[in-house]
């Protein structure tokens, strides 16, 4: 049975390698890719997303995990790994591979459109791609299913088991304190905020950022710092 666990780990590592390769392509898309490469990059990312999905929802992988879930010899960490992967497989099986590929391609296309809208300072370049993404997300909600609020299905991907009704309660409590604070700020005398409006040379900003990273102990042999249109990790 332990050999099966190791085999499952190998399969999951292959899937992780594909996902990590896609992440590198996404990083390149946000930093160095030439404009004419965007169309091909969208297709490449869609292909990798589909391939990862197919491997992850392969029946044999799920069968191996189900067999392992009853193994008494596994330690607590291994049991939790199996439980979480099975949970994710259950969710991923709700997605047709065609939808996975289409969503990935649409996200890449929307990012390109957002960049153009940003450069042109005109939202019209982004609106068609945004509308398409909204429609796909509505379709995703139906694929995943929900009991109370449609957004519960998507929220669960970021904050497990959290519901919209719980968020509403939290935000209502925050609002009780936030609105009086905003009113107080609004009625206060304007301070001198000219330091917000100064110009700082790009190279000096860059060098300052690098110096901060060095002081934080960032390992430049293991990672990079690059310029992108939108901040991302």
Walkthrough of the structure:
69% of the residues lie in helices and 0% in strands. The radius of gyration is 23 Å and the shape is globular. The chain has 9 helices and no strands. With 233 residues, the chain is mainly α. The two termini are 38 Å apart.
List keywords for this structure.
9 helices; globular; mainly alpha; 233 residues; 69% helix
Q: How does the major sheet shape up? A: none
Percentage of residues assigned to helices:
55-70%
Order of helices and strands: HHHHHHHHH
State mean pLDDT (0 to 100 scale).
94
Supply the number of helical segments.
9
List the SSEs and their pairings.
Elements: H1 2-31, H2 38-56, H3 59-68, H4 76-92, H5 97-120, H6 127-144, H7 151-155, H8 164-186, H9 202-215
Could you write a compact summary of the structure shown?
The chain has 233 residues and is an all-alpha fold. The protein is built from 9 helices and no strands.
């Amino acid at each position: 049975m332990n050999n099966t666990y190791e085999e499952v780990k190998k399969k999951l590592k292959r899937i992780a390698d594909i996902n990590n390769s896609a992440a590198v392509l996404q990083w390149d898309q946000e930093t160095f890719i030439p404009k004419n490469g965007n169309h091909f990059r969208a297709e490449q990312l869609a292909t990798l997303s589909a391939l990862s999905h197919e491997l992850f929802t392969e029946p044999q992988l799920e069968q191996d995990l189900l067999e392992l879930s009853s193994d008494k010899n596994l330690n607590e960490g291994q049991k939790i790994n199996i439980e979480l992967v099975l949970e994710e497989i259950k969710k991923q099986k709700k997605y047709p591979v065609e939808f996975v590929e289409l969503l990935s391609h649409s996200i890449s296309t929307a990012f390109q459109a957002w960049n153009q809208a940003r450069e042109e300072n005109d939202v019209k370049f982004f609106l068609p791609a945004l509308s398409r993404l909204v429609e796909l997300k509505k379709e995703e909600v139906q694929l995943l299913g929900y009991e109370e609020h449609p957004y519960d299905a998507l929220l669960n991907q970021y904050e497990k088991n959290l519901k919209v009704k719980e968020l509403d309660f939290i935000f209502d409590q925050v609002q009780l304190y936030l609105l009086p604070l905003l009113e107080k700020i609004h009625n206060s005398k304007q301070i001198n905020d000219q330091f917000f409006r100064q110009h700082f040379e790009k190279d000096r900003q860059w060098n300052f950022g690098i110096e901060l990273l060095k002081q934080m102990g960032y390992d430049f042999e293991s990672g990079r710092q690059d310029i992108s249109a939108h901040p991302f990790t």
